[in-house]
Design brief:
12 strands; mainly beta
Length: 171
């Protein structure tokens, strides 16, 4: 295994051939949102990201594939059906009900729920180096090594974002 990511009630791992294996709840009940059973069966993926009710993976061409809840229920916000279809992405991060990705210019694209401005407040421009999302907010590292966060802010996870510029990664 070369990468492992934890989701809400499941985990996913990537092996050296780029195949993904996910495990956790798959009992057919309320919390079973097909984020385990719909795991892609092919290989060639370069990274995987575990979200709340969905997962996303990036393949070697920079295409994104997301799977999980896609049933029109109250937790389906398009985080699977609205996944970008183009190539050239370099990073993807699945959160609770939205996901974001970086393209080769360092521009950020987000899709899924916008209930806390996770899409509306997505930074514009290019040069972003890395991003990470959780629950209903996302953070990105920009070209000046500063962190920018947007979305849900009930606990100041956006408002209290550090303002200095000496960061090398966001996780």
């Amino acid at each position: 295994w070369i990468e492992i990511k934890a989701g809400y009630n499941h985990n996913c791992a990537l092996d050296s051939s780029g195949a993904i294996e996910c495990w956790g709840i798959e009992d057919g009940g309320f919390y079973d949102r097909d984020h385990v059973t719909d795991t892609p069966t092919n290989d060639g993926y370069t990274t995987v990201s575990g979200g709340w009710v969905h997962n996303c993976a990036l393949d070697s061409s920079g295409s994104i594939e997301c799977w999980g809840i896609d049933d029109g229920s109250s937790e389906d916000h398009g985080q699977v059906t609205d996944t970008p279809t183009s190539t050239g992405y370099t990073s993807v991060s699945a959160a609770a009900f939205h996901s974001c990705a970086l393209d080769s210019s360092g521009s950020i694209e987000c899709w899924g729920s916008d209930d806390y401005n996770q899409l509306t407040d997505t930074p514009t421009g290019s040069g972003y180096q890395e991003l990470t999302g959780f629950y209903r907010h996302t953070c990105a590292l920009d070209s000046s090594d500063s962190i920018e966060c947007w979305g849900y802010d009930a606990y100041d996870q956006v408002a209290d974002t550090p303002t200095d510029s000496d960061y090398t990664t966001v996780r």
